[in-house]
Amino acid sequence: MNRRAWTWGFLSVLLISGLAAGQSEEIKARFLQRLPAITGLKNGGIIGENNLGFLEFRNPGLKNEENNKLVSEENTDRQQVYNLIAQKTGASVQDVGKRRALQIAEMAAKGHWLQDDTGRWYQKQ
């Protein structure tokens, strides 16, 4: 699945979550703005998608201030969306993130790093 489809899949979650229109547009814009840089970090094997629906550095030695800020901002926005979905659905925030992690794994590009439900990292084939 291409990165635009992945982004729109995640953005549809925003709409379902019941964010106010302006809030949804702001988060959507931030996701889209960060997407090329995040994709580059994933392609380089620097970050992966953990089993809770968040980005994680695969090698802490490759973490620098710019990349750390990028990943932190992405994870903060994801956390906000997961919190809202949990409130709307009555699910736990952790369960929302885990479900999102499964969706991300299905749509991930070949070669991207993912974490299975036991915490083991693997590259998508």
Write a brief structural summary.
The chain is an alpha+beta fold and 125 residues long.
Strand content: 5-15%
Q: Structural class of the helices, strands and pairings?
A: alpha+beta
Rounded Rg: 14 Å
Largest sheet: 4 strands, mixed
Low-confidence spans = none
Mean pLDDT: 87
How many E-type strands?
4
Cα-to-Cα separation, first versus last residue: 13 Å
From N to C, what is the helix and strand string? HHEEHHEE
Arrangement of strands in the largest sheet:
2-1-3-4
Shape annotation: globular
> How many helix segments?
4
The helix fraction, in percent, is 55-70%
Total discrete domains: 1
Structure description:
This protein is 62% helix and 10% strand. It has 125 residues and is α+β, with helices and mostly antiparallel strands. It has one domain (3-123). It has a 4-stranded mixed sheet with strand order 2-1-3-4. Helix 1 packs across helix 3 (65-89), helix 2 (21-43) packs across helix 3 (65-89) and helix 3 (65-89) packs across helix 4 (93-107). It is globular. The protein starts with a helix and ends with a strand. The mean pLDDT is 87.
Q: Any descriptors?
A:
single chain; 125 residues; alpha+beta; four-stranded mixed sheet; 4 strands; globular
Topology readout:
Layout: H1 3-17, H2 21-43, E1 47-49, E2 55-57, H3 65-89, H4 93-107, E3 113-115, E4 121-123
Parallel strand pairs: 1-3
Antiparallel strand pairs: 1-2, 3-4
Helix pairs in contact: 1-2, 1-3, 2-3, 3-4
